[in-house]
Structure formats: structure tokens, C-alpha cells
Amino acid sequence: MTAARGPVEIAGVGADAVARLRDLAPDLRWHDRSPFLGASARPALPWLRYEHRDHRAEADGRSPAAPPVARRVPAGRAGMSFAPEDGTGARSWAVTRGLRLLAPVRAAVAVAADKIDAMPLFDRAGVAVPESRVVLADPADAASCWAAGGGRPVVVQRRVNNLTGKGTRLVTGAVELRAALDEWRGERLRVSALVPGIPLTVSGCVTGGGTAASAVSHQLVGLPELTPYWGAHCGNQLVADDELPAGVGARCGQVCERVGDQLRALGYRGAFGLDLVATPDGAVLAIEINPRFQTVVSLVQAQEIAAGLLPMLGAHALASLLPSVPVRRVRAACLPLSQLVVPAAAHGVLGAVPESGCYRLDAGRLRPRPTRRLADLRPGEALLWRHARPGDRVRPGEELVLVQLPHRVAEVGDRPALTPDARAWVDATRRAVTVVAGPPP
């Protein structure tokens, strides 16, 4: 891997807690559509097992229903899932497998995930947010709503916008606002002032004794090379403190801790993420809470392991199993890791898609390499993780492949252009994917 960047200060659970976790959960499983996040934790949690989650079967009602009466869970059997709040699939899986699902309480998750209900939580935490208001979507109110915002660009968000970013829209005029209010007619929407700045994500873990604010990443959102959706997640890259305006890294950690303390008061335990914006003058504004694991946690875990901490999956498990877990703050060199999401461009049926594994580029084509861990990638290599399988029906913007690289993919800023090397990896991945076009499902 290329040389590490400047330092970062992060908090987490010491790696010496791994023996305690293995005693508590000798049968520990990870449940997701792709093994990528569990794979980055396995260097520290070698007994962690992966089980595939079929989101499409769940959505279509084809996955097995949970037994009507939950079985008694034997001690030491536990499972975790990427987004347990997304439907009932994770809970059905855990009951069927006889596992204790390590997930935050649903009531706390519901508050945190709601783009409107989370606003009072930010207020209690004492963290700044963009100027915003809540409206009932009615296209007849477009002119007055636009005028109330002073005629400046705004961001319109649906109450629930989990995982995709498609329910977030930039509006630059009254006509666009009317279209959004018409499409989402009757819904309560959050309308916020557009704040220019660097989009960031900080990953945290709420324990009984405190909140561990882990690594900060530059969030790549709505990049036109990758998606037509303004608010869609396109990837992340870890950032060192000195790559951000002075004091921003520390302020991101403070915001994470304050929000985590409010989540704890709701009974929340475990991993979560915060989307933030760092303004040019160094202020940090909170945008939304993601009460689950985030895709970037794969990179975060490599950083945590390098810093002598338990990876986030392990910290989440201990926070769920123990009344209190000691949190440690450490300083380490920032790893230059990044990742990009390659989505579907059209409706259709997925044909070819690269197998998950390590690759290099050869004349614009993907060539398999021996398997490597994320932190061991060499220049010119990447890890590819397929998030969909041949035969799946896919929609525009749906994530097909995650590409992880041992270097930066863009300058740190608001919606930057990808580097030529990053574009080459995206282009090669797209050439390796085929979608047979078809009507929307």
C-alpha cells in the first residue's frame, strides 16, 4: 500500500478486548449482501463467519419467515447485520439460526433514522445544523416555500431516506421545488439551506460508558461520473487531520460524541455514523444520522486495526453484550484507503459481474490477483466486491460493485472530479459488467 498520510486521532475499544469478545461470542456471524465489511474485520476477529443476505428475496417475500415462536438462543451465539432496521430480514435470519441479533433497540433507531425526528436530538446534543424547516408537500405552496427560503438553493429530504440517497434532492428554483413537492405530495419534508463545504462522515460506537468517535472520511456524494442522483453515495476516502481545515477533525469527533450521548439516552447501543459538512471557516454542521453500519466502516476498521483498536464490528458486539466497555483514544498515521461504488445505469437483469477478489489493471481490463487483505493492497491493485449477482433485476443507481483502493481517488472538497487512475478502475469495472436492458420492475 502507498505511504500513510498525516496523523489522525480516533477513539475505540482496545485490541486487548478481543479475547473477552471471543469468550462472550465464540459463534459470531456477519449477515450482509456482500462479505466486504466482515472481511476487513477478520484480521482481528478470525472466527467471524459470513452469511449472505438476499435483500431481493426479502423484498419479494421469498425468504423464509421467522418461526412464530423464537427459539431459546444458546449462550455464545450472536449475529450482526449491516442494516437490521431495513425490513425484518435480519431478525428473521437471527431467529432461524438461533442467534442473538446484536442490534440497537428499534425505537431509538426509528428516531435517529428519521430526517425530521432527528432534528430535536441534534438540538439536545448542542450541535449546529443547516437552517431548515419542515413542510407538508403541496405543489400549490411552492412559490411561498421558495420565498420563505430567501430564494436560495435548498436541499429537500424525505422523512425516510435510508441507504440510497435518492430521497435527497437539490432545488435551485421555484419550478424544481414545485416538481419535488408534487412528486412527494402529502409527505412531510425537511427543507434545508444548501451549505457549501466538504462532505464528511464520522463513524462512532455508543457503549454503556461513553461514545467512541472513530475515523473521519471524506464522503463522495453525487459524482456525475458515477450517478445521476445528486444525493447518492458514491464512495469515501479516509482523511488525516491536516487534510481538513484547522480543528475540523477534532470537532467531528466532538459532534460524534455529543450525538452518541443523546442516542445512549434513548437506549441505543452499537455502531452508527454521522454525515457532516465542514464549512470553509472550519465550522462542522450535522446533516443526518445513520443508525447502523455504513459502507465506509470497511475502511474505518482497517484504520482501527492499524491503530491497535478493535474493529468496529467487535466494538459494536461488545457494546451490545456488556453494560460498559472502556473507550481508548489513540493517535496514528492515516491510511490512504478509499472506495468507490459502481452502480447500474439502467433497468434490467444483471448478466456478468466480477467475482469478489483482488485485481490489477492490464490494458484497461481487470486481471485477478492473489487474494489480499485491504490493508495489504499494493500500488496498481484493488479489491472488488460484488453487491449483486447474475440474474438479479437491477435499477438505475443500484450498487453493483464496490472498488477499494490503496490511494486517494479525488481531491478533498465538495464533489471533486475523480483522479485519472480512479476513473480507469471505474471504467474497467463497468466493462466487466453486463446488464440486459428491460422495463422497470
From TrEMBL:
UniProt name for this protein: ATP-grasp domain-containing protein
Domain ATP-grasp: 119-318
Keywords, in A-Z order: ATP-binding, Nucleotide-binding
Listed Pfam families: ATP-grasp_3
GO molecular function: ATP binding; metal ion binding
